[in-house]
Amino acid sequence: MSGALNDEELRFRDEVRDFLARELTPELRQAGRRCSGIFTEYHDGNRWHRILARRGWSVPHWPVEHGGTGWTPVQHHIFASELAAADAPPRAPMGPGMVAPVIIAFGTPEQQQRWLPAIRNGDDYWCQGYSEPGAGSDLAALQCRAVREGDDYVINGTKIWTTHAQYADRMFCLVRTATGGKPQAGISFLCFDMDTPGITVRPIISISGDHELNQVFFDNVRVPVAGRIGEENQGWTIAKYLLQHERGGSYAPQLRARLRRQRRALAQANLRGAEAGDLALKLADLECAVDAMEAMDMAALRAQVRGEPRGIRPSMGKTLGTELRQRLDELAVEIAGQYAAVGLPLDDRLDGPLPLPEDAVYAMSAYLNDRAATIYAGTNEVQRNLIAAHLLAN
Ligand SMILES: Cc1cc2nc3c(=O)[nH]c(=O)nc-3n(C[C@H](O)[C@H](O)[C@H](O)COP(=O)(O)OP(=O)(O)OC[C@H]3O[C@@H](n4cnc5c(N)ncnc54)[C@H](O)[C@@H]3O)c2cc1C
């Protein structure tokens, strides 16, 4: 992290480092390094989440009364930076970072009691049922229907691009509970178990060869009304609140960790002359951009800890953070040179020593996987629209 830390912050950083030295096993570090997606494979991610939970650090951003840490913005930043620098597996945000803030802000005490502890300790893994084949950027066009029958809703329809639905215990889902009128006015926010009869999960394999995405089908799926958060037909406000959390968060720690790896990869590539100079210059340019990103992250963290509304910050962070990520990927492929073209069988990619430099082998899968970064969580074109609308209105 740039900038000086005071004594207390240095003590905290050492405490995090000691913890990582003890608890972050070589296997988990390898899983973190070899993760080409936004977050790691389920089993490694969940194993790491449970270790953090035992230390009380699995959900540091939550309010203290629900198991958060009450850290200062700088402590949050130190924690995220130390984890990224130590190659900790990035964890999926759908439970801790997306649905949990909604449950905390809009859920009843019973719902909070039912869902939050299991997210915190890693017993429950969640997936996000927002997008549909005809409803992505125009999310309010969603058609997946839920019809009330007594104490249940009966769901029919489909969701698509559902990340890690194959592992999820529960889904938070936007459903249409009314038609006619404004499309936004007929949407409800439902949570239910993924093993409910009538739910089918079909894989979608991405260009990088990973199975992260799925299409989910609902065929007369009967779920309790008690799983609805907020009032019927009032889900749109909740949906938007969740999106702010999906797009928010810190980008700089991961970017800086990648930058550090690329610096090392460049040194190991042993290039000379103009090519080496050109790549070093690009790295320096990216470092300046990561510094600027870190300043933005810190401003957002401070505002979050003060309890201020997030405003347009998540859209700005998402746009800059994901585009920087892609620039870093492009540079990693350049540094890897011909090794970037080597495709190892999937099994070889996961474990054990590699016949080539590790960073080079992962450069291409990260590059391919991160093409999606400017699409998910709301495309960057749409974020630019939101930023422009905000600027024009103020
Ligand atoms: C890797 C990955 C993981 C995902 N995980 C999930 C998940 O777990 N759960 C979930 O619900 N969804 C998930 N999504 C879906 C994601 O939210 C949508 O892909 C995204 O919102 C875009 O919707 P779309 O794909 O339908 O594209 P479209 O909305 O059809 O957009 C197509 C193109 O048109 C542009 N465009 C559309 N509207 C405008 C506009 N108003 N102004 C300017 N340009 C516009 C877009 O920027 C884009 O380039 C995931 C997507 C990806 C790629």
Automatic annotation (TrEMBL):
<feature type="domain" description="Acyl-CoA oxidase/dehydrogenase middle">
    <location>
        <begin position="127"/>
        <end position="221"/>
    </location>
</feature>
<comment type="similarity">
    <text>Belongs to the acyl-CoA dehydrogenase family.</text>
</comment>
<feature type="domain" description="Acyl-CoA dehydrogenase/oxidase C-terminal">
    <location>
        <begin position="233"/>
        <end position="392"/>
    </location>
</feature>
<keyword id="KW-0274">FAD</keyword>
<protein>
    <submittedName>
        <fullName>Acyl-CoA dehydrogenase</fullName>
    </submittedName>
</protein>
<dbReference type="InterPro" id="IPR006091">
    <property type="entry name" value="Acyl-CoA_Oxase/DH_mid-dom"/>
</dbReference>
<keyword id="KW-0560">Oxidoreductase</keyword>
<dbReference type="GO" id="GO:0050660">
    <property type="term" value="F:flavin adenine dinucleotide binding"/>
</dbReference>
<dbReference type="InterPro" id="IPR009100">
    <property type="entry name" value="AcylCoA_DH/oxidase_NM_dom_sf"/>
</dbReference>
<dbReference type="InterPro" id="IPR036250">
    <property type="entry name" value="AcylCo_DH-like_C"/>
</dbReference>
<dbReference type="InterPro" id="IPR013786">
    <property type="entry name" value="AcylCoA_DH/ox_N"/>
</dbReference>
<feature type="domain" description="Acyl-CoA dehydrogenase/oxidase N-terminal">
    <location>
        <begin position="7"/>
        <end position="122"/>
    </location>
</feature>
<dbReference type="Pfam" id="PF00441">
    <property type="entry name" value="Acyl-CoA_dh_1"/>
</dbReference>
<dbReference type="InterPro" id="IPR009075">
    <property type="entry name" value="AcylCo_DH/oxidase_C"/>
</dbReference>
<dbReference type="Pfam" id="PF02770">
    <property type="entry name" value="Acyl-CoA_dh_M"/>
</dbReference>
<dbReference type="InterPro" id="IPR037069">
    <property type="entry name" value="AcylCoA_DH/ox_N_sf"/>
</dbReference>
<dbReference type="InterPro" id="IPR046373">
    <property type="entry name" value="Acyl-CoA_Oxase/DH_mid-dom_sf"/>
</dbReference>
<dbReference type="Pfam" id="PF02771">
    <property type="entry name" value="Acyl-CoA_dh_N"/>
</dbReference>
<dbReference type="GO" id="GO:0005886">
    <property type="term" value="C:plasma membrane"/>
</dbReference>
<dbReference type="GO" id="GO:0016627">
    <property type="term" value="F:oxidoreductase activity, acting on the CH-CH group of donors"/>
</dbReference>
<dbReference type="InterPro" id="IPR052161">
    <property type="entry name" value="Mycobact_Acyl-CoA_DH"/>
</dbReference>
<keyword id="KW-0285">Flavoprotein</keyword>
